[in-house]
Structure formats: structure tokens, C-alpha cells
Amino acid sequence: MKGVLNEADMGRLKAYPPDDALEMLSADLARMEKRQTLELEKAKEEALKAVREKEQLLERYTREVKTGKKFMESEAGRAALEEAVARFKCSEELEELVLDRADGLYEQTVQDCRQILQGTGRVSDEDLLLLDPELPLNFTRDGRMVGAGDAEDGADGDAPPQA
Predict the structure, then answer these.
(1) Structurally, how many domains does the chain consist of?
(2) Interhelix angle for 92-120 vs 75-89, to 10°?
(3) What positions belong to coiled-coil segments (predicted)?
(4) Please, what's the b/e burial string for 37-67 (b: 16 or more CB within 10 A of its CB; e: otherwise)?
(5) Shortest CA distance to 119 belongs to which of 139, 102, 101, 148?
(6) Distance of CA 31 to CAs 23, 26, 41, 133, Å?
(7) 75 and 22 together in one domain
């Protein structure tokens, strides 16, 4: 009993005869066991409830996925998809996306063409500038051309950083 009770409780138990102390401890133990059993049952019920909710959600999700697939395979679903695509094609969002993507591609293409033409040695720098006068024509001191973003990196003769 010394391992179960602290010293103060042991001192109080000495006032009781051993049979009474055993009876009191047994009653306390029975109450604690009953409380623990109730808590365990409650935890089991909550766990079962959570499992049931999970199964219901999974069933609902599966049903909705199947319904969505069936809808998209139906005539109404295909019509709704075509309508959504048509509205997107007419939207300003698509235009902005295309122009943003094209802007970077255009500048890179012009710079690549300038570099190829300059590499042939048959086209003057002034003629290369005619491809797009808005875009800068960037060359290093040794005659190599660098992209618009790399102009500062290679302008002093240093090689551009290697990736």
C-alpha cells in the first residue's frame, strides 16, 4: 500500500482498523473503476461516432464524384462545359493571360534572332536594332550579345553568371 498512497494518507489510515481501511480503499477503488469505465465507454462511443461520420462523408463524396462524372458525360454537362469555355475565351482574363505570356516570349524571340543574325557577321548592329527598336540591343565589350536582363551583368566585360 505504501506505493499507492502518499505518507499523509498512510498516517490517517493507521487510525482505522485494517478491515475498515481495506473496505474504504475497496469502495474508493470501485468508484474510480466505475468512473474510468464510464469514461472509456464515452470515448468508445465518440470514436464510433467519428468512424460513422467518416464513412458517411466518404459515401457522400463518392456519390457526388459519380454524379459529377455522370453530369459531365451527359448532354447538359457537355453544354455547360462548352458554355464555360466560350465565356472564358471571350473574357478579359484570357486576353491578359495570353498577353502576359506572349510578352516574355516575344522579347526573348527578338533577342534570340538578333543574336543569331549578329553571329553570322553579315548584319550590322543598326539593322539588328530594326527588329524592334523598343527593345535594347545589348552587347558585351568582346562583341557578344546579352539579353536585356543581363546587360548590366556582362557590360563590364565580365562573363554573365553561369547557372
Answers:
(1) 2
(2) 60
(3) 33-64
(4) eeeeeeeeeeeeeeeeeeeeeeeeeeeeeee
(5) 139
(6) 12, 9, 15, 92
(7) yes
C-alpha cell at 68: 459529377
74 in any annotated domain: yes
Q: Pick the residue with more confidence: 112 or 161?
A: 112
Domain boundary among 25, 45, 80: 80
Query: Do 72 and 15 belong to one domain?
Result: yes
- pLDDT tens for 35-62 read 999 999 999 999 999 999 999 999 988 8
Note whether 145 and 114 are within 8 A (CB): yes
The Cβ of residue 95 has, within 10 Å, a number of other Cβ atoms equal to: 11
Which tens digit of pLDDT belongs to each residue from 90-146?
Answer: 888 888 888 888 887 888 888 888 888 888 888 887 787 787 777 776 656 555 655
**Could you give the CA distance from residue 29 to residue 51 in angstroms, rounded to a whole number?**
32
In a domain, residue 61? The reply is yes
